[in-house]
Specification:
This protein has about 220 residues and is mainly β. It has strands spanning about 10, 20, 35, 40-45, 55-60, 65-70, 80-85, 90, 105-110, 130, 140, 155, 160-165, 180, 185-190, 205, 210-215. The protein has a nine-stranded parallel sheet with strand order 1-3-5-7-9-10-12-14-16, with no helix packed on it. A four-stranded parallel sheet has the order 2-4-6-8, with no helix packed on it. Strands 11-13-15-17 form a four-stranded parallel sheet, with no helix packed on it.
Length: about 220
């Protein structure tokens, strides 16, 4: 890799690549796109990946990566797309995720083993279109700062251990076309502000079942 420092794009998708991602990846300081999805990489994401400050896309999904998300990814402030789903990552979603304010396409950390709360700093990602955190044992309340993500088209928080009430600020997400909060431990009433959303509450674009929510329900909710 040391001889490839002028590379701007690496795409090695749908292969049978095995072993760990080499730390030398951090030498490729001109990289803008790094896509290693659908391989069999194991081990931790090397911290040296944080040297790639020109990266706009970091796509490592569908591997067998483990360990915590390295803090050095917080240096990659040009990222517009971060996809680490379908791995075996552990630890918390770090608060520095809020540094990645140029994320516009997708932040997808689903189908891992991430624990702890959704950090309130996630509300800094005001340009984000898709936030997908499903199928982790995340706990705690949905932060009210989620209401800052007014450009969201997709919000998927299903199949976690989230608790507390749905924040009324969710009604700020007027561009949502898909909302999934199912299979959590959410309690209380659904806030009336949810009726600000323009999605179809009676089809598969609104999924809220398997919680501990109670009536009365907002007038716009037809099927729970």
């Amino acid at each position: 890799l040391g001889n490839l420092t002028n590379l701007t794009h690496i795409r090695l998708n749908y292969n049978q690549l095995i072993g760990e991602i080499p730390s030398e990846i951090g030498n490729l300081v001109n990289l803008e796109i790094l896509k290693f999805y659908n391989n069999q990489f194991t081990g931790e994401i090397p911290s040296e990946i944080g040297n790639l400050t020109k990266l706009t896309s970091l796509i490592l999904d569908h591997n067998q990566l483990s360990g915590e998300i390295p803090s050095t990814i917080g240096n990659l402030t040009n990222l517009t797309d971060l996809r680490l789903f379908f791995n075996q990552l552990t630890g918390a979603i770090p608060s520095w995720i809020g540094n990645l304010t140029n994320l516009t396409h997708e932040l997808n950390l689903s189908y891992n083993q991430l624990t702890g709360e959704i950090p309130p700093e996630i509300g800094n990602l005001t340009k984000l279109i898709s936030l997908i955190l499903e199928e982790n044992p995340l706990s705690g309340e949905i932060p009210s700062t989620i209401g800052n993500l007014v450009d969201l088209d997709i919000l998927h928080l299903g199949h976690n251990n989230l608790s507390g009430e749905i924040p009324s600020e969710i009604g700020n997400l007027i561009n949502l076309n898909y909302l999934s909060l199912d299979n959590n431990e959410l309690t209380g009433q659904i806030p009336n502000s949810i009726c600000n959303l323009t999605l179809n509450f009676s089809d598969i674009h609104f999924i809220i079942h398997s919680n501990k929510l109670c009536p009365p329900y907002p007038s716009c909710i037809e099927v729970l």
